[in-house]
């Protein structure tokens, strides 16, 4: 059991835990509507999956050469880069996700953080000319470029970068009963508390580095959970009103179901409440996140 978030989000998801966040004074006919995030007008997904093999761009990360699968520029000034090592046959376990901030000017997206380089998109139609520069020689290729759909007001609200202000963990079963609030979301600290209060087969050291820094939702239905010193988790989500479902494609393991459901709501401008239920190792319960927009 290496990734507590997946275990918390794994799913026999039956308990109405999210109801603890409902505001009885909130008028469902007057939902919160936030302004689009800062860079919504330049948000794009650039996919290189249809590019010729000899023209698929590459980058270096941790002294490993990766082939770019896609790079998404989110509504909230973050990129989401998906890549696979060029030296192996890449399955899901080989795919990595990198995130960080970007700036855009005249079709050039300058990225910093886990990936440092620029991506320039030009031309007409969905299949555009793309130039990738990672500090060495320019890599000229083509990419399929799409823009996120505007969707519902809830989708617009969600499509930004969030920080976990606090979370509440509620787990029970097999003699265990835990209901505890935490500042932020440090999974090692959560695992330690559960282990100290009767949680069996839980080793807090397995979660070292799994301290959530950001949660990203995009208008292209991408979700990413970024950690301080551990690989990011990523996949896709759907949002139907407040009903949320997620499938993680990167960051799972063979022990648990990578699909999860829950609720995502917006009590006020720049605030979100994100609830997931869980079932793992004979325990049931859930986790509620209080999120604040990163601007």
How many domains? The number is 2
Q: What string gives the helices and strands in order?
A: HEEEEEEEEEHEEHEEEEEEE
Taken as a percent bin, the fraction of beta residues is over 45%
Q: Give the rounded overall mean pLDDT.
A: 84
Biggest beta sheet summary: 8 strands, antiparallel, barrel
Helix content: under 10%
Low-confidence region ranges: 1-27, 253-257
> How many individual β-strands?
18
Q: Find the CATH topology of the largest domain.
A: Lipocalin
Sequence of strands across the biggest β-sheet:
1-3-4-5-6-7-8-9
CATH architecture of the largest domain: Beta Barrel
Number of helices: 3
Describe this structure in words.
By secondary structure, the chain is mainly beta. It has two domains: 4-36 and 153-293, Beta Barrel (Lipocalin); 44-146. β2 (58-61) and β3 form a beta hairpin. It has helices at residues 4-9, 153-158, 187-196, and strands spanning 44-47, 58-61, 64-73, 78-85, 96-105, 108-111, 117-122, 127-133, 139-146, 161-173, 176-183, 212-217, 222-227, 233-240, 243-250, 259-265, 271-280, 283-293. The longest helix has 10 residues, at 187-196. The protein contains three helices and 18 strands. Helices cover 7% and strands 47% of the residues. The strands form two sheets. Strands 1-3-4-5-6-7-8-9 form an eight-stranded antiparallel β-barrel.
Keywords, please?
295 residues; mainly beta; Lipocalin; 2 domains; 8-stranded antiparallel β-barrel; 8-stranded antiparallel beta barrel; 3 helices; 7% helix
Topology:
Blueprint: H1 4-9, E1 44-47, E2 58-61, E3 64-73, E4 78-85, E5 96-105, E6 108-111, E7 117-122, E8 127-133, E9 139-146, H2 153-158, E10 161-173, E11 176-183, H3 187-196, E12 212-217, E13 222-227, E14 233-240, E15 243-250, E16 259-265, E17 271-280, E18 283-293
Antiparallel strand pairs: 1-3, 1-9, 2-3, 3-4, 4-5, 5-6, 6-7, 7-8, 8-9, 10-11, 10-12, 10-18, 12-13, 13-14, 14-15, 15-16, 16-17, 17-18
